[in-house]
Design brief:
- With 275 residues, the chain is α+β, with helices and mostly antiparallel strands.
- It contains 6 helices and 10 strands.
- The strands form 3 sheets. It has a 4-stranded antiparallel β-sheet. A 4-stranded antiparallel β-sheet has the order 7-4-3-8, with helices on one face.
- A hairpin with a 7-residue loop joins β9 and β10.
- The longest helix is centred in the middle third of the chain and has 28 residues.
- This is 2',3'-cyclic-nucleotide 3'-phosphodiesterase.
Length: 275
């Protein structure tokens, strides 16, 4: 599963819930084979965020822009909740990244934040690229792996100022062939897709363990639930009413994380505290 750059929402470090979750995750890891990787407690707001990873200066600019926009988006939403994040019952799936996790209540503000960021920084760039490939095929080529990629700038465009007139004429030729993208159309498509994604696919959760183990047998489940109940001081950690225990947080920390390769090698590109 390709995650690319993901936007995480984490509880703040050194808070009671952060420390409890981190300790619980370390304890649960010992129950699974092959030393599962360690990671920070978080909710993934969205994956595949569009960040330039080739040019370090552009990477910093993109990261700052996305984090700033995320804060503005969240601050623009109504403050009609006590916790932005509320933990639900413990659950498991066959998937590696959802082997063991807490469900998270789909707070309207949390869903809105995910929809906004998905629309602006994931779907819109994808739609712009798709539209560009369709109406401006001369800007693209096929690489050795059969993938459509942007053509590199012509050598003519890299000439010195002494050849500026020649470079300028080449640029004019390209500009004459290149059709403008209808941004209003692209934005409408992106908004519709983001709304559908936030309704049907966005599944906020807090992963506790990443593992290929399947299935989790009854004996292991009993041990897991006992540890969760003990560490978080809840009577029934898989009850639907776990949300009533008030476990969760408001605010926290937004982080952009490059999720490529081994989990232990993931890189935090930037972060911002929410107040």
């Amino acid at each position: 599963m390709a995650l690319g750059v993901a936007l995480w929402l984490c509880p703040k470090k050194n808070t009671q819930l952060y420390d409890k979750l981190l300790t619980l995750m370390s304890s649960l890891n010992t129950l699974f084979p092959n030393q599962p990787p360690k990671f920070e407690p978080h909710i993934t707001i969205t994956t595949n965020v569009d960040v330039n990873l080739v040019d370090s200066e552009k990477t910093r600019d993109d990261v700052n822009k996305i984090l700033s926009a995320s804060v503005v988006a969240l601050n623009s939403l109504p403050t009609n909740h006590s916790n932005l994040v509320t933990l639900g019952k413990i659950d498991s799936q066959r998937k590696y990244f959802k082997k063991l996790y807490f469900q998270v209540k789909k707070d309207p503000n949390l869903v809105s934040l995910a929809r906004i960021i998905r629309e602006i920084f994931v779907i819109t760039p994808q739609e712009i690229e798709a539209e560009n490939i369709k109406i401006n095929p001369h800007l693209y080529t096929t690489n050795s792996k059969g993938n459509t990629v942007r053509r590199k700038p012509s050598k003519k465009h890299k000439r010195s100022a002494s050849s500026a007139s020649t470079a300028q004429s080449s640029t004019v030729d390209i500009d004459e062939r290149t059709k403008p993208i209808e941004m209003q159309k692209v934005q409408a498509i992106a908004a519709a897709k983001a709304a559908e994604w936030s309704s049907s696919e966005f599944d906020p959760h807090i992963s506790l363990v990443y593992s290929d183990l399947h299935p989790i047998d009854n004996a292991l489940w009993r041990t897991i639930k006992t540890r969760v109940s003990d560490y978080l001081n809840v009577a029934n950690c898989d009850a639907e009413g776990l949300e009533d225990n008030g476990l969760g947080w408001d605010g926290g920390v937004l982080k952009l994380v490059l999720c490529e390769g081994d989990v232990n090698d993931w890189i935090v590109l930037g972060s911002v505290d929410l107040h």
